[in-house]
Amino acid sequence: MKVLVATDKPFDQKATNGIRGILDAAGYELVLLEKYTEKQQLLDAVADVVAIIIRSDIVDAEVIAAAKNLKIVVRAGAGYDNIDLKAATAANVCVMNTPGQNSNAVAELVFGLLIYGARNFYDGSSGIELKGKKLGIQAYGNVGRNVARIAKGLGMELYAYDTLCSDELIAADDVVPLHTISELYEKAEILSINIPATPETRRSINRDLLNLLPKGAIIVNTARKEVVNEEEMMQFMQERTDIKYLTDIKPDNHEEMCKKFPGRYFSTPKKMGAQTAEANINAGIAAANQIVRYLKTGEERFRVN
Ligand code: 3PG
């Protein structure tokens, strides 16, 4: 039986070797499709596999329909907004993610981007320090918690807003829990966006919300471009010349943002948050183990559909 690893953005070699070892030991054959450029390559590759490991690769209804033997898809990572859950469920395909496995890597990149912005993109001019600054963490999940841990070492003042997290849990980390999104945006001299893309969060970061940010605020988005209303972000950046926006997910209007806001806007060319050897190994190996357990024993931990 074949298990496909389909990654437009390949895993570190050590992760791929680890996945191969787990699949070999379980009697499955690893098929690798890396850096593919056409959807047809994915459609061809899924034709005879029972399981797929992906990253941000799109698994839509067409991919599910082309995978006639498919039993399980594991998203090696946290967000599964790239998978058509309805189509998977209808085809009796189990979908899982590997929560927490790459969150330290993403959280570390928050600070990579942040220091670049705080020091004016290393242009030689005088920047700002993070010590003593108020950091607003939008969503206190695995990434949010790691952001808080690192920020404490930098001496930042921490605030978080998360409707799914209890005050006790947030406060236990010496982070102040806030109860409205407005309060978070009013406080955040630095804002770290860590929310998933869901029907509720899509385009939810709009001009009204952004306008609550204090003067000189820096926004860091390592979540999804879809959670930002991109036209309104552009308008906001035009009106609020004091604001910087750093993102790990290139917006659709990236070229225009670059042109209009030099020194205030930056995007990584490709999503880099989870792109470390450690995160690849953690998430890739977790995905392989989850597949083996599901196929051998039916274990459904981390199932999302
Ligand atoms: C995730 O949802 O786990 C992160 O956004 C990382 O995505 P990637 O695996 O495509 O780098």
Write the layout of secondary structure elements.
Blueprint: E1 2-7, H1 13-26, E2 29-34, H2 39-45, E3 49-54, H3 61-66, E4 72-75, H4 85-90, E5 94-97, H5 103-118, E6 134-138, H6 142-153, E7 157-161, H7 167-171, E8 176-177, H8 181-187, E9 190-193, H9 207-210, E10 218-221, H10 230-239, E11 244-247, H11 254-260, E12 265-267, H12 277-297
Parallel strand pairs: 1-2, 1-3, 3-4, 4-5, 6-7, 6-9, 7-8, 9-10, 10-11, 11-12
Helix pairs in contact: 1-12, 5-6
Bound molecules: 3-phosphoglyceric acid (3PG).
3-phosphoglyceric acid (3PG) binds at residues 9, 55-56, 77-79, 102, 271, 273-275.
Structural features, described:
This protein has 305 residues and is of the alpha/beta class. It has 2 domains: 2-101 and 275-297, Rossmann fold (3-Layer(aba) Sandwich), CATH 3.40.50.720; 103-267, NAD(P)-binding Rossmann-like Domain (Rossmann fold). It contains 12 helices and 12 strands. It has helices at 13-26, 39-45, 61-66, 85-90, 103-118, 142-153, 167-171, 181-187, 207-210, 230-239, 254-260, 277-297; strands at residues 2-7, 29-34, 49-54, 72-75, 94-97, 134-138, 157-161, 176-177, 190-193, 218-221, 244-247, 265-267. The chain has a 7-stranded parallel sheet with strand order 8-7-6-9-10-11-12, sandwiched between helices. α3 (61-66) links the parallel β3 and β4 (72-75). α5 (103-118) packs across α6 (142-153). The structure holds 3-phosphoglyceric acid (3PG). Residues 9, 55-56, 77-79, 102, 271, 273-275 line the site of 3-phosphoglyceric acid. 3-phosphoglyceric acid is lined by residues 9, 55-56, 77-79, 102, 271, 273-275.
